[in-house]
Every structure is written in C-alpha cells, then in structure tokens.
Amino acid sequence: MTEVLPARERIALAADLPLDEGLRLYERVAPHVGYAKVGLSLFVEHGPPAVAAFQRLGARIFLDLKLHDIPNTVELAAARAGALGVSLLTVHAAGGESMLRAAVKGAREGALAKGHAAPRVLAVTVLTSLSAEEVAAVGLPGTPEEAALRLARLAVGAGVDGLVCSPREAAAFRRELGPTPFLCTPGIRPAGAAAGDQSRAETPAFARRAGADLLVVGRPIHTAPEPLAAARAIAEEVSSA
Ligand SMILES: O=c1ccn([C@@H]2O[C@H](COP(=O)(O)O)[C@@H](O)[C@H]2O)c(=O)[nH]1
C-alpha cells in the first residue's frame, strides 16, 4: 500500500524560470508544493547557489540534471550533487548499467561526506516530450511504454531508487516492477491545460491513480492567471485521486 502523504509532498514545482521569479513563485505556492525542481536552465545560469536559494525557503530539492556521460564523469558529478543536500537527482537510464551504478555510488558518497542523507537517484526512461514516432526515429524498438519498461528494468537492476516516466507508463511500471521504485511523472496537465511540447501528458488524478509518487508541474502553474489557485487545484486533485 502506498503511504498516505500530504498532497504537497507529492508535487514538485519545475522552476524553469529566472531565479528571482522562480523563488517568488515557489514562496507563493509552497502551501501546496513540497519540492522545487532545479533544472538545466537554472543550474547552467547559477549553479549551486540556485539550490541553496530554494533550500533557504524550506523546499526539498529535485536536481534535474539528467546526467548522461561515462561512468567516471557521472560519479564525480553525482558526488557534487549529493554534497549539495538535494533530495532527488536525475540521470538518463540510457547511460547504461555501469553509469547508473556510478551515479548511485557518487551520490551516496558525496552526501555522506557532507553529513546529508543520500539523494534518491532517479533514472529518466523515455522523455515525456517524445511521441511514438520520435521514439521510433531515435531507434528505440517498440511502443514508448515498451521502450520505457526496458530502460526501467535496466535501471532498477543497476540499483537506482526510482524512475522518471510519463503518467501513461506509471501503471505498467508498478505492475512490472512492484511497489518499491519511486515513480516520478512530469508531463502533468490539468484538464484543459495546453500540452506545449509534452507528447505523453495526463492529468494529476490520472498520474496518482497510475501509481506515481511525485508529480512534476511547471507551466500549468507558471502560466496560470492565479498560480496559487492552480497549485491548490492540483493538490486537491492529487488528494482526491
Ligand atoms: O521526461 C521528462 C523528464 C523531465 N521533464 C522535466 O519536467 C518539467 C516539466 O515541465 P512542464 O512545464 O510542466 O512541462 C520540465 O522541467 C522538464 O525538464 C519532463 O518534462 N519530461
């Protein structure tokens, strides 16, 4: 049985905004959102101070760097991430078993060296932006779900703590992989929200019912006329799913 957590512990704000705007937005929606996701744009511009700025607001940090390189390089980067006291760190499952093992080792050792809890290392399976046609075009055989499951099995076998997938794949992941992997689903769109570049998006309720532990939401909150109301509505949908 999945743990009963307050809805805010199940929602991450994708802070893909200039840092000052992202911090102001997180402060506004924090009653409904427990994690701030620091992704590539914030980290490329500001580096670790972006992480520290959200930590000062009490956010748990989801560092979404999607590491994908040779094992030694990923281990070094994961160790630096672990040392920042982040809660979640992403790597690409397609980096392969040795790279995934190196990421887990680096993240644990980096955290330990600074007295932090080890972050959960999450393996990104098939990006939620990719359509079935694009998945085929990059050379992955089968449907997006089949491709994602293959990568998920590899990543779990390599010792990662969780997986990033579309809400559409979450139920199959739970069925095939059981209750243990922490499932994180971006590609969240409340009914009527613009999909933008997300090809395999679903509603917050769909994602929760499919077994997702953490929902990542960016533009549906950023672009809402009332971001606090949008975050509250998502949290209510998560609670009642
Ligand atoms: O497969 C993936 C992996 C990561 N993401 C990230 O999640 C957010 C989604 O933002 P929205 O504005 O809600 O679309 C974004 O930071 C992505 O980098 C993903 O979308 N899909």
From TrEMBL:
InterPro entries: Aldolase_TIM (IPR013785), OMPdecase (IPR014732), OMPdecase_AS (IPR018089), OMPdecase_bac (IPR047596), OMPdeCOase_dom (IPR001754), RibuloseP-bd_barrel (IPR011060). Keywords: Decarboxylase, Lyase, Pyrimidine biosynthesis. It holds the Pfam family OMPdecase. Substrate binds at residues 16, 37, 64-73, 128, 189, 198, 218-219. Homodimer. Signal peptide: none annotated. Belongs to the OMP decarboxylase family. Type 1 subfamily. HAMAP family: OMPdecase_type1_B. One of its GO terms (molecular function) is orotidine-5'-phosphate decarboxylase activity. GO terms for cellular component: cytosol. Its EC number is 4.1.1.23. It catalyses: orotidine 5'-phosphate + H(+) = UMP + CO2. The active site is at 64 (for ompdecase activity), 66 (for ompdecase activity), 66 (proton donor), 69 (for ompdecase activity). This is Orotidine 5'-phosphate decarboxylase. The keyword Plastid does not apply. Residues 10-234 form the Orotidine 5'-phosphate decarboxylase domain. Catalyzes the decarboxylation of orotidine 5'-monophosphate (OMP) to uridine 5'-monophosphate (UMP). It comes from Cystobacter fuscus (strain ATCC 25194 / DSM 2262 / NBRC 100088 / M29). One of its GO terms (biological process) is 'de novo' UMP biosynthetic process. Pathway: Pyrimidine metabolism; UMP biosynthesis via de novo pathway; UMP from orotate: step 2/2. The keyword Lyase applies.
